[in-house]
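User: Quick one: structure for sequence A, then sequence B.

Assistant: Sequence A:
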Amino acid sequence: MATEVAQILLPVPNSGIVQMPDRRLPGIVIQGDSLSQLFDDLVCGLRQAKQHRDEEAYYSLLMCAQRMQDLLTAYEEALKRSGLDLPYMVSIKTRLVADDFAA
């Protein structure tokens, strides 16, 4: 586990603006349960884009969902290593997205 300290520039509900060591620009920290809900919202948008045969929207949403999926996978691994429980009910491992626009 890293021992570096990030500076909190602005606390925001369920998130915060932080300055990571050795980074020029600050980043945004999002609580894991909030990220999980955003992922589920994107998946809902994916379904709607597929239903409406909106290929451009579908692939834009898919790209975002896959990135969030990667972040949630890393988040869950970090929790596991730390002996912490998930703050949401269903692991990302059972909610994976894949390109099924043509299906």
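Sequence B:
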Amino acid sequence: MNQWIKILSRYRYWIFGALVIGLLSQSYRRDDKRQTAPSSEQFFQTEIAQEAGPVLVKFGAEWCGPCKLMDKALDEYLALADGKVKVVHLDVEVHPAIASHYDVRAIPDTFVFHRGKVLGHQVGYMDGKEIQVWVEKQTSGLRDSK
């Protein structure tokens, strides 16, 4: 017990700093910023915001191995979705303003939009079936409100 007290007293400033950073990061609401479309981006407006139905957007890059695997999974998902959801592949190096606006920090990063509003967000690889289940969960409210 005495050994733990010595360790804690030695690293108390580091521990305190980590706690403060953790609390501050919890209070920062990045979702609020993502609810509005980046109006200056014509690509976003034409491909995502003006669509009547849901749009799945995969943020990725040419050099990203998991992104390439995710592209294959999205092809599998398209066969399962039967045209109900539009899929857009967005390269973060070609459209850095959109990626920055939605706070994309790791790729692949997948969003579901409806009329430019974010319905759901998922970081990392998903296979075709996982994508289908996830998208259905995110868009279930759309079917209920029709």
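Helices lie at 2-10, 12-27, 30-34, 42-49, 65-81, 96-101, 128-144. Strands lie at 54-60, 86-91, 109-114, 117-123.

User: Thanks, that's what I needed.
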